[in-house]
Amino acid sequence: MKSDDSEASKSEEEKEEINEEEEEEEEQEKDEEPNQEENQEENQEEKEEEQKEEELKEEELKEEEQKEEEQKEEVEAEEESDHVNVKEFDNQNSFIISLQLIKTFDNMHQGDPETTITDFLKNVGLPMHFNSEDHLALYLYFHKMCIPFYQLLEDIKSEDVSDIVLNSLKESYYLLADSESKHYNYTDIAKKSFLNLRISEEDTNISKVPIVLQNEISKKSSDLQIKKLILDLGFKSNGRLDVYVKIHIIKAIIIYLNDEDILPYIQIFQQMEDDLIKLYHNSVREKLNQKKYEEYVDIFTNLEMRDKWKEHLIHCRKLIGMFQNVNDYESLDILERLLIQLLGHFEKDVRNNAVKMLNMIYDQTTWQEKSAFPIQNTQIKLMNEQLTLELNIQLEDYGEKNIVLIISAPSENKNVNYPCMTFLKCENEEEGNNLVKLIFPLGTLSKCGYYDWYLVRFSKGRFTNIKIINDKKELIEAKGRIIALNKDIKEISAHEVYCDLIGADIDKNQGRIVKRGSFQNLERKLDELYKRYINLVYIMGALERDNEIAYDEETAEAIDIGNDKASPMAVTSRSNISSLLGGEKSFISLINKAHKLSMKIVIDSLSRISSSRAHRKYRDILLRYLDTQGKMQICYGSDGKSVRYEDSAILNYRKKESWDLLISEILTLIGKYKIDGVHLDNCQAWPQIMEMDTAELYRIDIDGKPAYTPLEILNGEVVMPNVECGYWDTDNYETYANPLLIKLTRNVWNLYPSFIFIGECWLNEKFSQRHVSLTKSGIIPRLYTLPIILCEVLGKKIQRDGRIDSAPPTDITLIKDWYNENYKDLPEGALLMQSSSGQVWPYPALLFGRGNWSAVGLLFSLPDIPMTFMDEIDGEAYRVQITNVYESKENKQNDNQRFRQRSKSLLKLIESQEQEKREREQEGNRKPLSRSSSIVNFQDYIPQYNLNESIASIINLSGVAVNQTREIDNKQMNLVRSLGPDQGFDLTKIHFHYDHYRKLRTKHQCLRKGKIIYLKAMNNNGQTHPGVLAFARQTEEETGIFAINFRDQESNFLLDLKPLIGDDSNPDTICYIQNWECDDKGNYFFLRELTQGRMTRKIGPFQSVCFSFSVSNFSQDIYRKTMETSNSIMINELENRNDSSVDSFQSSIKLKEILNKKLPLEEFSKWISFICDILSRSKISFNDYIKKLDFVVRDEKSSNEFFSYCYRLANTKNNMMLSPQNLKIAQEAENIYNSNVIGPICFVTPELGRWSTVGGLGIMVDELSQGLASIGQEVIMISPYYNQNRKGQSGYLNNDPFNIHYIRNVGINLDNRYEFGVHYGTGNGGIKYYFLHNANIFPRPYPDFGPAMTVREIACFAKASLQLLCDLQTIPSIVLTNDWFTGLTPAYAKNGSFGDTFRGTTFMHICHNLEPTYEGRLYPSPQEGTLEGIYQFDPNWLIDFSWKQRVINPSRCAIMMSDQWATVSNSYRDDLRNSSPLNHFLNQKPRPFSYPNGIFKEKRLKQLNEKCGLSRPECKKYIQQKYFGYGDADYNVPIFSFVGRITQQKGVLLILDVVEEMIRITGGKINILVGGMGDRRDPYVGACIHRMYHLKGKYPYAFWADPNEFFTDGPKINKGSDFGLMPSLFEPGGIVQHEFFIAGTPVIAFRTGGLKDTVFEFRWDNNSGNGLTFDNYNGRDLVGAMRRAIDLFKNKEKYEICRKNAFNSAIDVADVSRAWCREFYRLKNKIYFNVKEVKNSAINNTSFNPEEARMNYLQGPHPDYQNRSNSQYMFSNNPNMDPNVANITFSYKFNNRNPKNVFISGSFDNWKEKHPLTYNQTMGKWACTLKLKKGKYLYKYIIDGNWEINPNELSERGNDGITNNVINV
Length: 1865
What we know:
single chain; 71 strands; nine-stranded mixed beta sheet; 62 helices; elongated; alpha/beta
């Protein structure tokens, strides 16, 4: 079968394929005969030798064939055995069933011991005798298999038994699946019980049906017959074939009953039985032996059979499943040996297959045959965890509900070194959204190991695969793996020690080790380490190393000091403890002491061994290579890449012996010394399989024969050193687990179920992502990337050899990216171990400097397991090097003389050896060493730290210059001083820092087991702080928050907690925060205050802050304390932080609630009373406080609501019944209202609306003024009353609908006395219009005066406007001047002409057009000079005397003397600041304002309808008929129209330049219209007019223009055109585009000024954009835009979308006015609100009691809040609220689910609405609050579309049978 790895589950097609392949193999074997002639030589003697060899081989073959025939005969004998009556069988072939034994098995649970069965056998007994323990074991197994059939066997004689069978068969998979996955060692039970077995004589527990065991079933028998072969196979299968045994038992019952209704089931079961029998016979036929193994070796080394390798690999895969199902471990062992060899094969595809098949062998399943376990279905769990598997499948796959989960799990019995298989049924199911969720409780993970699962469907006797749906809604294979690790692994705080240096003395003056460290010294140190919260010690160098007889050159004496130069990684025996450090006795004592302290001890495990004097057991498995001279050499230790360890040698991991030896050595260490774990050195390269030296291995000797045998070739006896091959050079290492590590962990965990494996894993470009493979192989990877990342963050770069270079510091996000990258591809729940440094790098003190303090905080607060180094935690900077990482030079000083001297002194040494050994054991230390072997050496690191000196950071115990060693202490002290002990960076005290964080990790569960949630630390600008890393660690019980500063300066930061707590809408939720850095009592805060930016912290250089965070239970006292804290912080921020908002404070939240819910006026008055009471303790005014409320200042709706309350409350002050306190509150409301009302807004403008508009300026100010008046602002307009306007009209104010009339004169003095008539009228919402008349000064708009007269004109207008305001006694808050004509106005206001009258007035100059030709420049003659006599103020305000030519520039004066300037688009504002000649003055004004022009949308639409009176198609028809002479409309011809003044600015000539090109492109199918007038005196206009008449005459059907007529069809053109044309050379704002937009007409525009901000290219991909644009001002680009427009026009669907976009793009004057008004309020430092709306607002006024309000706010929420959770309470002090209405919170907490959305629906609104629940991350649950009246309600939750009840809440079942949750309010 596919799912349980049995041949019996193959589909029919697969079986046929297998048979065909087997036949082909047999034919090939017949056809293939060895060809001996090819290798014959001329030498006759060699031929005879070969002939003898062949004869020997033939004899061996005959013997093998004879054995095979004997085996076949035995099988045939078994098959031919006939049924014999039970009386003829002995009791080994018959069973008397004990029903009570079956029941006992059935009642046992997973945790029950096997002694339950043993006790049953001893106390109750069995109904029959047994000849052997094996017979009893088989009997016990049979009864366990009979559990599903207990009722059948008990009632087998009754009449209704067939009904029972039928009911069982309908859900047959329930008979096959166990609810418990308990497996028993029946053999072990039988051994313990056989001798003491009691024979029961009672008949009550015995089935009356005899059971006969045989291999052929006879239909004539009256007995219930069981095939012994099937029972035997099942007994040996470890649960894999249990399903077949159960099927066979039910089949036997059916045959026994002989009932016609159930007999049809036999055919299905017979097929399964036949499959199993066939499997067994095939396994016998295919059984492997030495001969077949050698054949495979020959095949896979024979290059001529290369094309057959794939075929043989496929056959090997089939053999694995076959041998596993029949437990043929001998064949599997041979196959494993072959596959380990193939793992190092030179053919990559062979290696790929070897990886798969080795995993299959070690898994004892073939579930990974086609693909590895999906990473999303792989989980890392801990022992003793309760595990429930939830799987989603498609509803259509659920079908007959015949789904079975197969579990392959470690056996609980130590004697069973293979997984056991269990078939589980679904315990619960949930349907919804076309999905079915299957729930399988798997119980407790009892031991470390691999718990594999496979979900299959059982139908018609077959298991078939199905798919499951993952979180991404993808269909994936329904299989997975759960890896259980040591239950305490997350509790670990690890520390690495180098035992040689524990208590060692080094004479630094002479460079010699006086005393070596020892196990005994380390044992003494354990108490100290324990007190420092270290609970795992990794002892590096604990294994036996090279203990050669050393020789002292000076004395010529041999001394037994051991090879001091040998690296602790140069291990001579991996199963023995170092005698150099004290030996076994001392080490066992160390282990015992550690275990008493609950500390774990981990030692090294290496894949390599010492290259000198290694133990003899390694001799035959060493790996070798040919050096450059062709000499065979051992391969030095290697990481498989470039690094060599010449003190060690690699073993040949193509040999199974190397794998087995490694495992047995680790098992020996565990069993003998009770170690808790191993540290796998360079685990990222295990197994180190080097590439074959194929040139050598396939070399032919001089005699023509191969130099190496096939076995030597496959073993890779000669390799290429440092050229990695094997597992890591396959395509499968990223998906499949490491076979060696899988075998290692499975073997160890079987005997020692809580053992720890830590795998050293270097991640770099050579070993990318290898930690993923280690994790999937049960290893905890130990990484070394953290120091590299920290160096980059701290502004350094560490090289592999330990050198430290300076570099720019990187952003703190690098740490987040690094952490996420580490876990990106890891299984769920994966664990990593992080180190603070590497073994060849300096200690953190030197590596990070001051940054070491922040590095410690990060190391211990990350979810990864921390590992520190010896001496690091005490502040040491210089470390002892423990191994030679790179190539070392060989010591060649070994001449004969030295060897002779050495031999003479050897005898003397041996005599004293025993005495010295005893002394060493007593002292625990080595005797002083001679200089020749103990020189201390520094490796040359040159780290770039504070001092630019060469700092040697690593001591090497192999010997160099003594003078370097003398400087160690000096360098250490210099480093200590350079870091700044007086500033808190004292290396001599850093151990307190380490201990503190280790203590925190030990004390707080969230640091060990909590998930990490990244938080955002923001600087004062609201941007992510580049140097402060913030995150939270969270479990269900606890949350810790951390912020770490990686910069060398103090930082203030705001902590955004929203990722942690989500959107908690309850403003009264209280949380408790306690600082973990000190033992303070903590403080209470309102959660909302923290979520909205109040988590402000100060953090010192390289410091960390950490604190707890939890939601508090409510009490009145807690609420009062929290409120006081909130108010104190708020006052502090108001007084000390100018840029701070106080929105999130509780007091402010209450105001927001009042405004949003529009609570009665009484609530608002209570709030004012409360706030005034708080502010009375500070220097902050009520108005200043309100300005800090962003939701009032920035949100117009809120500000309108707030000032509406103030306005109405202020009006109550005239109530004579008010008490003094109430009167004070009313006065506060009045003050705040009046403080934020601005006075009149005055426009001084040269043109205005319908009276004197020349261009866009007059339209803009007219519409803006009307918009301002519509929102309640007082507006004054001052403009000249020209003798004649642009239209040539005189007296145009007469009979005006605004009743504009003469009221008075106003006179001013300049160079003469000038009088002006003042005409006044009101309209447009109360706007006051003032027109100044003097026919000589203002003959017409912008007259062509000379410089002197123009200066006189603008000076008169400016001064007369201000004089008029004085005469009217109206002093505006804002004066808006417009363009150059009004530029002198602010100068007269500020030059003393009017004293201090306008001191409080803000002058803003609006630059409608500030191009050089529109600045109003005047060029007086030299005789005229500066014309200062006319304007009479400082000429520097008008003239830049640095210019060569004297220019009077009114715009210069306007910008210089105004308080602010503004313009009509953002882009134009930026252009002016960058390129205007006046940008020096423009940039002196901070925050210049800009906003696009707009139109009255409703008014314009009405105008379009009234003036046009036509639909859009009718307008187009009108245009084509009137202007292009069409008889009828052609709607397929696009119309392009320009409407506006004919000037160079508007780009009319550019249109005319492309007309003929567009006519040519379209074949004349185009209409281009230019509507507008021009002044012929302008040369540009003259050229345009000439071209217009030419084109109009030549192409009357395609082009129209008439520059001599005033164009009156503008609205029709806007509506009927298909595209508007606006190729303006510059356009500050523009209104024409909005006139086209409002008619739904897209615009083609040059990207400049305001056009760039309002016209956007239409995008076909996302349907955005409202027109077409071009970037380069030339005809080619305009043609390109028009061609794109034509393409768009042809696509009607896209064109209609663009039209809709255009219509929606039109900007309304109402929006423009509000934007300008808001800017005016900002300039006056006031809060903007809509005065008109505020005054018209109706709010009920009620009486109030300020004192009562204050007390209510201090006491907090309603008392019933304390009886409910924080998330249930919604704050309100409103006494008028309905007492029958309550705020009820519904919540749902999911422990093993992760829903996407949750709703609730119920009878509270007749099930009409689905109310959404939101996820509260702090509470860990979904919740929502509803207002419910008193009563009883039914409800249900809708979870991802499925209607469900909450099992943790009350429920009831209705009469309709439907169950709902219920609540009584």
